[in-house]
Design goal:
The chain is of the alpha+beta class and 137 residues long. The protein is built from three helices and six strands. Helix content is 33%, strand content 41%. Strands 2-1-6-5-4-3 form a six-stranded mixed β-sheet, with helices on one face. A hairpin with a 2-residue loop joins strand 5 and strand 6. The protein is globular and about 50 Å long. It comes from Parahaliea mediterranea.
Length: 137
């Protein structure tokens, strides 16, 4: 690997970790438009919490994501990301990061925290979420 390619990977990892931080800040601030800008046009999210009302699961498309996140950001959760590992492969990358979500009622979160499994894509020089899946520990 050349010095230039190593630098490109390090820059990509830094940009992706900043993407995850901007996600947390947007959620905490209730900035729905800013939050949705972090996702690719074909992105989806998935929440692997099973509840009796069927509020969670796979959410595809920006319109459906807006509906899902508008309900969620209204609760003003405070997500804290830890231990973010990223693997870059050209214009795509994958990542895993631990998350503590504070400020929500117990039925919406796990007191032991959880983690996100992410896929990222570089669109026109900007890293975005291609998909983001939350798993409780």
């Amino acid at each position: 690997m050349t010095s230039e390619s190593r630098l490109a990977v390090l820059e990509a990892k830094d940009n992706i970790r900043e993407l995850a931080a901007r996600y947390c800040h947007a959620v905490a601030a209730g900035d729905l438009d800013g939050l949705l800008e972090l996702f690719a046009e074909t992105a989806y999210i998935e929440v692997s919490i099973k509840d009796e009302e069927g509020r969670f699961g796979k959410v595809e498309g920006k319109s459906a994501m807006r509906d899902f996140y508008s309900d969620m950001v209204a609760l003003r959760p405070k997500p804290y990301i830890h231990n973010h590992c990223v693997v870059v492969n050209g214009a795509r990358a994958t990542g895993k990061c631990a998350v503590e979500i504070r400020g929500l009622a117990k039925e919406y979160t796990n007191p032991n925290g959880g983690y996100y499994l992410d896929a990222y894509i570089n669109e026109g020089g900007t890293w975005k979420f291609e998909n983001r899946t939350y798993h409780p520990y």
